[in-house]
Design brief:
By secondary structure, the chain is of the alpha/beta class. It has 14 helices and 14 strands. Strands 3-4-2-1-5-6-7-8 form an eight-stranded mixed β-sheet.
C-alpha cells in the first residue's frame, strides 16, 4: 500500500480547539524556538488546533516557557556547537517540563536522532505512541558532509563525521524507525526510500510542503517599487543561496539568456546559510560580469519578498538531483504557483509531479540550456504563460493548501490514536 498523500477534496469542516476530543502532542523539533518555519507555524499552529489537536513544542532556543498558537513551548538549552551533543539531554528535560502541564497522547520527534531515542523510551514509559517526522534524510546528509570533508583533506573533521554517520545510521534504521508507531515523511520518494529499508508503507504518510493560499492572494500583495525592475524581463528565485544547492546554476541560465534578452533581470530573493556563502555568490556574479542582470537581495521580510515576486514573469526552481534532494518537497515551486507565476522546475520527483498535475509550468532536466530554453518559451508564448498563471492557484488550493494537509495529518493521528481522538 503506498503512503497517503493529500486528497483533492474541499476544505473539511473544522472543530474548535479544546472540544471533548482534543489531545496533546509533545513535539521535539530541530529548528530553534520560537518556530519560524511556515509548515510548523501553519500546520501545527493554525490547522491542527481546528481539528482538536494541540502541540507542546520542545527544543532549543532563547526563551523560557511561552505560549504559541498551537499550544505551548518548552525551551531547554540553546542552539550552537554543543547542541548536537547535548540536545538529547535538554529535550529530555523539556519533556519533563511539558509533562508537568499536561499528559501527552503522543510523542513526536522531527529530524533529531539522539532525541528520538530518548523520546522512544519516554513514550514507552508513558505508554503513548512514538512518532517520527522526517523532513530531511539526516543520515545521508551526514554522509555527504563526511565525503565533502574528505575531498578537502580535513582528516580530523572527516573522522568525526564518519563516526557520526555510522552511529546515526545504526540508531535511525535499527532503533528509531523500527520502534515508531508512524513515520511522517516529506514526499512519496522519501517513503519509497524508507520502504526499501524495511519501514512498512502502511506506517508512513507523505506530507509535502504546502502554503496558506490566503497569504498568497496576488491581488492583495503590493508590488515592489524597486526601480531596478522597471522595463526588465524579471525572473525570480525564492530561496537560499548555497554551494550545496549549486546556486551557481542560476547564473549559468542567465548567461545563456543574456545575449538574446539584454533586458533580463534575475531577482534572487533569499539569504545564504553563512556570510562566506553569500560572499561567494556575489563574487561569482562579479566574475561573470552579471551585475546588471542579477539582483541579489539577501534576506527580506515575507511581504517585501512577495512584492518582488509579483513583478516576475517566470519563477525558477532548480534543485540538484541526488540522495539528499530527490526526496525533498521544495516550497518555492508551490509558492510560485500560488502567486500565479509560470514556473520552470527540474525533475526531482515532487516537482515533476506538481508540474505534471498542475500544468502550471515546464519541467526540464537541471541543465542550463534546457532551463534557458524553457524560460524563453514562457517569456515568448503569452498564451502558454497566461494558461500557467491561471492553473497554479487553483492547483495549490486543491492539493497543497495547509487546510488540506492539516486534514490529512489529523486523520492520520486519528488512526494512530483511535481510542483517544474523536
Amino acid at each position: 500500500m503506498p503512503p497517503r498523500e493529500p486528497l483533492d477534496t474541499p476544505d473539511p469542516p473544522r472543530h474548535a480547539a479544546g472540544h471533548a476530543g482534543a489531545r496533546t502532542i509533545f513535539y521535539i523539533v530541530r529548528d530553534p524556538l520560537p518556530p519560524t518555519r511556515a509548515d510548523l507555524l501553519t500546520l501545527f499552529g493554525d490547522e491542527l488546533p481546528r481539528h482538536g489537536i494541540r502541540t507542546e513544542l520542545i527544543g532549543q532556543g532563547a526563551a523560557g516557557v511561552d505560549r504559541w498558537e498551537g499550544g505551548a513551548m518548552h525551551v531547554a538549552g540553546r542552539p550552537g556547537r554543543l547542541a548536537a551533543l547535548l540536545s538529547p539531554f535538554w529535550d529530555a528535560l523539556g519533556l519533563l517540563r511539558a509533562a508537568r502541564r499536561v499528559r501527552p497522547d503522543c510523542i513526536q520527534v522531527r529530524d533529531k536522532i539522539g532525541s528520538a531515542l530518548v523520546a522512544r523510551l519516554a513514550a514507552a514509559l508513558w505508554r503513548v505512541p512514538f512518532v517520527v517526522w522526517m523532513s530531511f534524510p539526516i543520515v545521508e546528509g551526514y554522509a555527504v558532509r563526511r565525503d565533502d570533508l574528505r575531498r578537502h583533506g580535513m582528516r580530523l573533521a572527516w573522522l568525526a563525521h564518519a563516526l557520526r554517520a555510522i552511529a546515526a545510521r545504526v540508531a535511525l534504521y535499527r532503533f528509531v524507525l523500527p520502534g515508531a508507531h508512524h513515520v511522517f515523511v516529506q514526499s512519496a520518494a522519501m517513503a519509497a526510500s524508507l520502504a526499501a529499508r524495511g519501514v512498512p508503507s502502511e506506517r508512513m504518510t507523505a506530507v509535502p510542503m504546502g502554503v496558506d493560499p490566503a497569504r498568497f492572494v496576488r491581488a492583495t500583495i503590493a508590488p515592489s517599487h524597486d526601480t531596478r525592475l522597471d522595463r526588465r524581463r524579471v525572473l525570480l528565485y525564492l530561496g537560499r543561496v548555497a554551494r550545496s544547492r549549486q546556486s551557481g546554476f542560476l547564473l549559468d541560465v542567465v548567461e545563456r539568456l543574456r545575449p538574446g534578452l539584454p533586458e533580463l533581470l534575475l531577482v534572487i530573493a533569499g539569504d545564504a546559510p553563512s556570510p562566506d556563502e553569500m560572499a561567494w555568490m556575489r563574487a561569482e556574479i562579479a566574475r561573470r560580469a552579471l551585475q546588471n542582470h542579477v539582483l541579489l537581495t539577501g534576506w527580506l521580510p515575507r511581504h517585501t519578498a512577495l512584492g518582488y515576486a509579483v513583478r516576475a514573469e517566470v519563477g525558477l526552481s532548480p534543485i540538484p538531483r541526488g540522495t539528499l534532494f530527490d526526496v525533498s518537497s521544495p516550497t518555492k515551486l508551490v509558492e510560485y504557483l500560488a502567486l500565479g507565476i509560470p514556473s520552470v522546475a527540474n525533475d526531482i520527483p515532487d516537482q515533476a509531479r506538481v508540474i505534471a498535475d498542475s500544468g502550471a509550468g515546464l519541467c526540464v532536466p537541471m541543465e542550463a540550456d534546457a532551463f534557458a530554453a524553457a524560460v524563453r518559451q514562457l517569456l515568448d508564448d503569452k498564451v502558454l504563460a497566461a494558461a500557467c498563471s491561471q492553473r497554479g492557484p487553483a492547483y495549490v488550493k486543491r492539493h497543497r493548501a495547509y487546510a488540506i494537509l492539516g486534514r490529512l495529518v489529523a486523520e492520520t493521528y486519528t488512526k494512530i490514536l483511535p481510542e483517544r481522538i474523536a
